[in-house]
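The protein record filed here:
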Amino acid sequence: MILHSIISPLDIFCNMDEQFRIPEYRTVKGGIVELEDGQVKRLISTDPKLYLESRYQPRHIFGEQ
């Protein structure tokens, strides 16, 4: 494969050693939570109040209050 780009190959192929994981998503009232290893990775919502709730903060264990 030949790649013609001004972007460094290290930036393009940075995670070649890591195994790709399919993200886990959970539906919550008002949005969707993306989980990684049982912890919140990100919140997808149009409700700004949800982003202020501590249970949806990154690295919080999902399901705990």
Remarks:
- Residues 35 and 44 are 11 Å apart (CA to CA).
- Residues 22-65 form one domain.
